[in-house]
Amino acid sequence: MSPSKDDGGPQLTFKRLHPTFGVEVEGMDWTQSPVPKTLLDEIITAINREGVLVFRNANLNNEEHVAFSQQLAGHQDLYDVKAHIKAGRAMRFPEQPEIFDVSNLDNNGNIVTEADPMRKEGNKGNFLWHADMAYNPHRALYSLLRAVELPPKSSGGETQYLDSRTACEELPEDLKKEINGLITHNSLMHNRKLGSPEYFKSVEPLDAPMAKYQLVTPHEGSGRDNLYLTTYAHHLDGRSWEDSKPLFDRLWNHLTQEKYVLTVYWENNGDLVMWDNTATLHRATDTGSYGGKYVRDMRRTTTKDTSRYRFGENEDHSWEAGISKVKTEGEH
Ligand code: OGA
Ligand code: MN
């Protein structure tokens, strides 16, 4: 009997990972490329509802990873899959500029150490809650993160997700009223500075353009409100950083409650996790012992948002944020 059902009914089944969001997807047939339209429809329906989809043992290679991402982007009537950050460094896969290298490896395949502080210190921003590319004036929709080589089990490297739609709906009424209509200004370097204040102390986030988004932005795929607050949020429109911080802190206190958090444990090389950046937050974790010792080779693609909210409050959406140079001793 063929392993894939073709009776015209739904092919995918789901295993719930958290009471309000996130599922493991079963029944996915990766042998067909491109993935058939009916299956793609099922995936889109599921991600709109769940925000996070975990595909165990997808075992895609770079080409298949990019092709599937392009299909998702195309499905959303979008132009392309973009290479994300202007990272200021060569990627390990010049053949696939769409693949963002999230590994702890340098171009020679060696584990990144303190000898490369830009990488090492910059990566600390990834341990803070974020939505990919919220610092750009055209924000991201889906991210697809693939495990190529995982560190040994129990040595860490989990990825955490946060249900920012449910958190938004459960905001205390007074806070909900208070944030109605507020706009954030978002900066890549603000997050990097939060992650490693000492290393990035010479960088002033206000020196670079910031991307503006409504703090509460509806999620088009589900019609639910989403609290689009990330650690890229530097200040609120019309307020200084100092005047914005107390409100941000109150929102973070609410958002980061344990009940909204899902920890995804990577099980096997070949696992793939897809998430919706306009409906969830995520972060890498640094609680494990693998850092500096074991390879963690993770690769990501990201599609651009296609919803009516894709440009937020940004009139000019032609630019992309980059990493600012850090001044070293003696430089001014
Ligand atoms: C990412 C990311 C988390 C991780 O790829 O966008 O945040 O656990 N990754 O590597
Ligand atoms: Mn990320």
Helix content: 10-25%
Q: Cα distance, first to last residue?
A: 70 Å
Q: Class in CATH? A: Alpha Beta
Mean pLDDT: 91
Please, how many domains?
Answer: 1
Briefly note the structural class of the backbone: alpha+beta
| CATH fold group | Double-stranded beta-helix
The CATH H-level homologous superfamily: Clavaminate synthase-like
Radius of gyration: 20 Å
Overall 3D shape: globular
Low-confidence stretches: none
SSE arrangement, N to C: EEHEHEEHEEHHEHEEEEHEEEE
- Please describe the biggest sheet, giving its number of strands, its sense, and whether it closes into a barrel: 8 strands, mixed
Query: Beta-sheet strand percentage?
Result: 15-25%
CATH architecture heading: 4-Layer Sandwich
In total, how many beta strands? 16
Number of H- or I-type helical stretches = 7
- Could you tell me which ligands this complex binds, including any ions or cofactors? N-oxalylglycine, manganese (II) ion
